[in-house]
Fold each of these.
Amino acid sequence: MSVYLRNFLRFCFIVILQVLVLNKVTLRWWLEPMGFPIFVPYVYPLFILLLPFETPVWALIILGFITGITIDGFANTAGLHACATVFIAYLRTNVLNALLPKNLSEYAHQNPNVKNMTWTPFLTYAAFLLLLHHTVFFTLELWNFSNIGYLLLKIIAATITSMIFVIIYVLLFTRQTTARV
Amino acid sequence: MRTFILFIRRFFNLILFLGVEVVCIIMIARTKTLQGNDIVSSANVVSGLLYKKQNDVVYYFGLGRMNDSLLNENARLRLQMAMLKGIDTLHDSLVHKPIGKPDSTHVVRYADYVYRTARVINNSVSAANNYITINRGSNDGITRNMSVLSGSGTVGRVVHVSPHFASILSVLSVKQQVSARLKDGTYGYVTWDGDRPDVLMMRDVAQQIKVKAGDTVYTTSYSFFPPDIVMGYVFKTETLKKNNLQLLYMHPAANFRNLQYVYVVENKMDAERKELEDSVKSK
């Protein structure tokens, strides 16, 4: 399967998963907490995180914009998701460079995954970029700094929940062929 | 010139990044006002159809709850009808129906509201500005700024319309305020502070007004809603130190978490009223 087709299918799958399933999952961590934020887990930045290593930065930015604006179209938030996604798309290459022992060009035709990055660097990479994404997104969305503790609580709770969904996704969609050999 | 091209090539990614972010921020800034934007909304064809397909599947899971809410609403309407029957109406025609108030003056209040039902195909409660998508659009006579009610209370107003879908900015939105009144006629306005979907706040109620928990908050005729629709029920009051005004916390009457059907209300007098008010403003 060509790399374009595979990434296109992943894009469709992640967008549909986000829009039709996860956007309906309005989470509160426990019942009726006074002032505890409710939020939706966002896993669609995973599409940007899982693009091949050698994707140039300009392509990442454009793809990030397209992904974000698609989610925006479904959520009625013109530009909010796009802004946050473009931000992490721009920073992705730098974060990968910082976390990987080898140069990025040595990972030809590979996607970032737990096999070639191992668990800890991959989770650090995903958690850091998701945290940045959620920070930008919720700050722009709320745009109200009078209640900064609430904002931070919302960002942290949403990031942790999104990470749980990302880990589930990675566990489900990593091929286990090497483990059997 | 050569250094300029080299500069562009050196910082191409940064320039592209900043350019795209500026585009995003311009789009965000346009949505911060109530007028909103028409570029990206969930009333477009693709998302509308996708949401409709999804709703066709999950629709059946909520039928029991919907039956209960319809029964409750029927009971309430029957009660209102029984109350109306006792009133001597001046004009008893189909077009003009006096609102259910014994009119002591000679002024009869007419209401020209048209109710259309619509099915909710997408809904959110977690954002700072929550939108609802319904399966009716301009082909069904929906236009912008119509108000939307559920069986139990206020829901929001129509902000985007496409031929088959419309999106509604719900009362759970930090950028709109709704004029409201208490049982005794004290005016104030209802806002939402963006965190909990089961708490609305009514502001600017004078300190001396006695408000108990459980009091009902209604819409007024100043708002875009029809007057005397239940907005919510007060559960806590608080007097603000800085201006000695009361802040009332209330639970919204409509349950935003499981909206199934809504009524889109067209006010036939709205255009005339707006024209009159605008002519006053322009002078």
Amino acid sequence: MADDSDSTGSGIDEPEDAGQPAEGEAANASGTPVRHGRVEALSEEEIRARLVSTDSGATLDHDEVVQGMARELGAQRQVIDLLSDQREPEGVNIAKVLDSSAVDLEFIMGVAVTQETATIIGGKADPAQRRAIRDQISLPFNTAFKMCLRSIWIRIGRVAITGSGIFLGIAFYASVSLTAAIMRAVAGAEGVEQETARQTWLIVMALMVSVVGISNSMLMAVAERFREIGTMKCLGALDSFIVKLFVIESGLLGLLAGLFGAVLGMGLTYVIKAMKLVFSFGDVSGDMLRIMLYSVVLGTVLSVLAAILPANQAAKMPAAAALRTDV
Amino acid sequence: MPRSDEYIVRTKDLSKHYQMGDETVEALKGVTVDIFRGEYISIMGPSGSGKSTLFNMVGGLDKPTHGTVFIDEVDMAQLDAYELAWLRCRKIGYIFQTFNLIPVMTALENITLPMVFAGMAYDDMMKRGRELLDTVGLGHRLHNKPGELSGGQQQRVAIARALANSPSIILADEPTGNLDLKTGKEIIDLLRRLNQENGVTVISATHDLKMVDVSDRIFWIRDGLVDRVQTRSEMEQEVMTEH
């Protein structure tokens, strides 16, 4: 049940109102009996068993929970009695009783309750209630992360191709940077200035090329999943969930591609140096750590950048349009 | 479960225009329908008649050009993105012609996805997911991916997913369109059973005449307008007189 209760105490008073026939007639004034739910009462033992199992003791201590529930139980009993009497109209004011109840009646009593939607959302609802809705739609990071891992694993072939754009760009960056670092360590600072400028230019070009490449792949990857996006929106996903999923997925991809790219780039640099029979590298371990870090950050950022625009675009599409697309 | 006198869906003078180049196509031209809680409704009509458009409007998947849709007496146009998501998540279950399961997820994961969005605890989610799969007769295929299931089985998973958060309405767009005769019949029977046992309102856009037998009322749509509304008894009489 969705409602927040501000006072558990009032829960004792409300059901007594519910028992008044006057109230029942008021609800029936329009001539349309309002059914709020169907009830199958549980035996007392079952209720007690459920009470024990619901005690999570999150904020209240055990006694408080038990006391609170005992009070609620009294209140809810009356509702059950009322309903089992089959008095007309069925389910008088049960919503009112429930509104004041902190305990999930549906769970404890096995009562399926359909609340009037108008009391929860839309212009007629209480503004506080409308704001509370925002917390009732969620995609926890853990779940999103697992979904992304799964999604990457299933599409590993295509992901590898997308990732290779970043991977190669980063490998190039790592290799060039390490070469520069080695030169600096071996030859000192002289003559390196001009070289550095040229290298920066090269690196920027390489990374730009790889961003354009992965943007294209990401566009395709998003377009391929328009229908999935539309479906998720039908199931209650916010636009931000869609973006979140793509950001995590592309971030993971970029991180891995950056990491492996750095390893490959630096590894190759060493191999090439060794083949040229250069064995004095100076102490570049600090530089290597720096390059590794930059590579991972760069890879992640570039990959997320490439994915976020198409994902955002796709998330904003009306669900119907997203579902219609056939790719 | 008998239908109640409460409205679950009302549309008022609903119209939708699409811009196709220089031309404006009127997919809906002012549709007003009232649907009661617990009814089984079929929206029938030839393709291009606007039934899918109506389906999209009622489901909050697209915005009407004019007119209003009320779900449980809530005006959809007034809802913000969160409320709309909330409504789709908890009040409406969708079923599609093409099943639209998430291909990388197992049957159980597909079914529990709406529960994830609704913030349900993991254990409750798994329990309910299993129960739902049992309900649709797929208790033994929990961990199969959609690609490993037949069309009929996929549609069953989709129905179970639509039921995940105990919605008041199930919206089905051509649910039998991609299924053979026998499987289609099974899916229709399943929907009817859920309608009768759980009291969920079923609204189905279709041109499958098998749906007629189980529908409480049939809305015939033609050229973006409701041509006529028939109750089942009227329909049966018509069939009787014809023979």
Amino acid sequence: MEFIDYYKILGLSKSAGADEIKKAYRKLARKFHPDLNPDDAEAQRRFQEINEAHEVLSDPEKRKKYDKYGKDWKHAEAYEQAGTGAGGGFSGFGRGQGAEGFEDFSEGFGGSGFSEFFEHLFGGSYAGSRGGGGGGVRFKGQDLKATVQLSLRDAYTSHKRTLDVNGKKIRITVHEGVEDGQTIKIKGYGQPGMNGGPPGDLYLTFQVLPDSHFRRVGKHLYKDIPINLYTAVLGGEITVDTLDSKVKLKVKPGTQNGAKVKLKGKGFPAYKGKGEPGDLYLTYNVSIPSSLTEKEKALFEELANINKKA
Amino acid sequence: MKEELIALEIFCHHCQVELTFVKNLSESGLVELIEEEEKLFIPSYEIDQLERLTRLHYDIGVNIEGLEAIQHLLNKLKQAREELKRAENEIAYWKQLAK
């Protein structure tokens, strides 16, 4: 882990007094506080640095140790332990004492960095009381937001889905009837908390993509059905695809272009199946023949003449 | 409902927050307090907001006036983000149709 200069982070000289440290911390915290920078991961990272710097420099004992070892503070402490042969204080870091122990010790800092060190070095977590001077403040981790895209058919039935959120696999159930723009909260799957604070939450927003055949408005579905002129005029039977099946429909003779039919209960299910399902509204689009054979043309002309006489 | 209310005194004791601070927040309209039988309660839906304001006040010394300004700007930010999200969804919708 790289050496972190806490004085530099807070923009202070090494001779800074307690008041200056507090003032510098507050000035920077006002800029980078996660509550003032929602969904800003960079601000959260900076705030964590500032908070850690403040944790150490505002506590005289911690500051003394930090000042004493300077850039090599972690090794110096380890050498002291090795020299006296008293490895007890650091037993959590390495397997043994002496030179061999240093590698393990260094590795101990590679992952989570400084916070881990202080939890071991000073004992316990940072969690302190509010207004207690240098004590750390427990801070809930940043909430995360993600969008899950679903096809209309995906949103129609309940199904399981595995998501990759920041390298973490999360298995969720997408319930039938989920709305476009609906957000669900998954507690504890946000960023980790600070100083022993609880992790943030994950907010998943569902984006239901438009479908080329069905239009959804709330729990109702709308669909255009092309029918030929002859079926519209004479009536007949057609087969219509719903989202999950096929239905046979009788078309009344004399059906007009744009006429609507409602199929009760064939729309979208209510969310989690709680409530009545929606309806499917069909709109007939009567297609007029654009190229006629001579015989067809003659028959249409005959029809037109009959119509004129009537 | 009674079970959704948290006694103000319990919250303040647990979080080591001054009673007057929460009352001042309430007077400024930043959190809602409910009075029942001469006792003050915090509705559970206000806890997140109250914790946020408490952190800003105690951690970085923002006063009540500052909190009011921050809340106003955060609301505007949230609104702007929602509008952006709506616009992005609309663009995605038209792009999908254009395919």
